[in-house]
């Protein structure tokens, strides 16, 4: 690694990048030649798969959003999208074979709750019709925005078996919503939360953002208190990032310098209110255990993505559609997806091949950035080597006091968790960094 951990932290501050996946999609490239799905999944353990479905539609794009999504789809577009998604589901299910078993289902976006009731019902039918294991009572998650969930839709989500609803609120302060370029209202957020809480989903999650211009400790406390009023099982606290091609970036806005203080305020308050910290962003109520289902390990098990924008993970290959943020770029990728035949859906043509070192690096990253930490014995059982031998730079975490080694685990300390968005990028390989730097965002 070219720079030490201390040098890396000094070069870019505490908030450098959200390393929720590795490698980032901007490191993916065109695969030459394309590969057959059946060949890609051949030899993979398909006994516990995460099935992720992407719905790239929103009412409006928020100023901070760099997700793969489009707004105000024209007449018939969602229907044609579901047609293409069904062709893809057929091709993927055939490639996976009868031995495949789904352990988790999640629908993200975009805003999946943007879909109408009949569209959601059709999407659910596609998943159940082509992935029979999804008939089992599984953890099933969906993302939603306040303006798209009324009593009728919430009842439908409950009847379709969703066990987790994540509501993007971001702030309960009108001026902060305006600063984020978010066309939602506080009244809508309160109404949606009350309806969702009354529906008694096993898990209700609320997303909040800190670090927008004009936010103060007092206004941040207002949002925290409002979110806790319905006692959600999970809360995500996201530091604001202003990324290229987003609305905030075009307007020249930047996050406040108070993000660390606001993070600490939120962390300490949630702990006092009976939440335990799972990662830099995720806090879970002490009396809540996630819905039971087949055992799934994100470090070791595969992920099957449906729809443009959805990633799929095998041991040695991560793949997806191309990545875009701007309206024209996203529109072009969706248009390509809509015209693809079932045969074309059975091939992979864009992704990133992971050699052994990249696989090991991903395992370390996915483990270390969660409070439970990196289990050395599990790593050794999976790779036949030790993480300390493969990545001697991990000793720097211990030397800085950002990690502790106990009971066979390497865990980030409280100080280390604060630096999660430094530790993640620091551990990226030179190859991944180079590919990301060359990527041309559209």
Q: Mean pLDDT score, rounded? A: 94
Total number of domains: 2
How far apart the termini lie comes to: 30 Å
The main β sheet shows up as:
9 strands, mixed
List segments where confidence is low: pLDDT < 50 over at least 5 consecutive residues. none
What structural class results from the helix and strand content? alpha/beta
Provide a count of the helices.
Answer: 19
What is CATH's topology name of the largest domain? Answer: TIM Barrel
Shape summary: globular
Going by CATH, the architecture of the largest domain would be Alpha-Beta Barrel
Number of strands: 18
CATH class category of the largest domain: Alpha Beta
Whole-angstrom Rg: 21 Å
Strand content: 15-25%
Task: Give the structure's gist in a few sentences.
The chain has 19 helices and 18 strands. Helix 5 packs parallel to helix 7 and helix 8 packs parallel to helix 10.
Comma- or semicolon-separated keywords:
442 residues; alpha/beta; TIM Barrel; 2 domains; nine-stranded mixed β-sheet; four-stranded antiparallel β-sheet; 19 helices; 40% helix
List the helices and strands and how they pair.
Blueprint: H1 5-12, E1 29-36, H2 37-41, E2 49-55, E3 57-58, E4 70-71, H3 77-96, E5 102-109, H4 117-130, E6 140-144, H5 151-159, E7 164-170, H6 174-179, H7 186-199, E8 203-210, H8 217-228, E9 234-239, H9 247-250, H10 259-272, E10 275-277, E11 282-285, E12 303-306, E13 312-313, E14 317-319, H11 327-339, H12 342-345, E15 347-353, H13 356-368, E16 374-375, H14 376-383, H15 387-390, H16 395-399, E17 403-406, E18 409-412, H17 414-418, H18 420-427, H19 430-438
Parallel strand pairs: 2-5, 2-12, 3-4, 5-6, 6-7, 7-8, 8-9
Antiparallel strand pairs: 1-15, 9-11, 10-11, 13-14, 14-15, 16-18, 17-18
């Amino acid at each position: 690694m070219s720079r030490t951990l201390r040098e890396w932290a000094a070069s870019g501050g505490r908030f450098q990048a959200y390393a929720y996946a590795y490698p980032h999609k901007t490191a993916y490239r065109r695969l030459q030649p394309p590969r057959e799905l059946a060949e890609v999944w051949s030899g993979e353990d398909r006994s516990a798969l995460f099935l992720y479905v992407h719905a790239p539609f929103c009412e409006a794009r928020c100023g901070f959003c760099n997700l793969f999504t489009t707004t105000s789809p024209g007449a018939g577009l969602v229907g044609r999208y579901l047609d293409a998604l069904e062709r893809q589901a057929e091709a993927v299910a055939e490639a996976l074979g009868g031995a495949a078993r789904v352990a988790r289902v999640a629908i993200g976006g975009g805003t999946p709750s943007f879909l109408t009731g009949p569209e959601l019902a059709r999407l659910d039918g596609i998943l159940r019709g082509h992935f029979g294991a999804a008939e089992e009572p599984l953890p099933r998650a969906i993302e939603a925005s306040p303006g798209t969930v009324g009593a009728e839709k919430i009842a439908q989500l409950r009847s379709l078996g969703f066990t987790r609803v994540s509501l993007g609120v971001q702030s309960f302060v009108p001026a902060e919503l305006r600063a984020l370029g978010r066309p939602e209202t506080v009244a809508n957020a309160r109404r949606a939360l009350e309806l969702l809480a009354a529906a008694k989903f096993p898990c209700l999650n609320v997303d909040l953002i800190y670090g927008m211009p004009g936010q103060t400790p007092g206004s941040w406390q207002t949002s925290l208190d409002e979110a806790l009023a319905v006692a959600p099982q999970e809360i995500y606290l996201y530091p604001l990032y202003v990324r290229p091609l987003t609305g905030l970036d075009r307007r020249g806005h930047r996050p406040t310098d108070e993000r660390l203080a606001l993070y600490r305020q939120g962390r300490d308050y949630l702990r006092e209110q009976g939440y335990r910290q799972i990662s830099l962003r995720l806090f879970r109520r002490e009396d809540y255990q996630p819905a039971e289902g087949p055992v799934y390990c994100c470090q070791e098990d595969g992920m099957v993505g449906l729809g443009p924008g959805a990633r799929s993970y095998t041991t040695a290959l991560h793949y997806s559609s191309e990545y875009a943020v701007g309206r024209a770029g996203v529109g072009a990728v969706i248009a390509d997806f809509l015209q693809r035949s079932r045969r074309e859906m059975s091939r992979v043509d864009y992704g990133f091949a992971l050699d052994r070192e990249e696989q090991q690096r991903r395992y370390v990253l996915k483990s270390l950035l969660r409070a439970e930490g990196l289990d050395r014995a599990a790593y050794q059982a999976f790779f036949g080597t030790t993480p300390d031998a493969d990545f001697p730079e991990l000793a720097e975490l211990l030397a800085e006091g950002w990690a502790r080694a106990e009971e066979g685990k390497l865990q980030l300390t409280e100080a280390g968790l604060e630096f999660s968005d430094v530790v993640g990028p620091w551990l990226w390989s030179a190859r991944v960094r180079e590919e990301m730097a060359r990527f041309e965002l559209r």
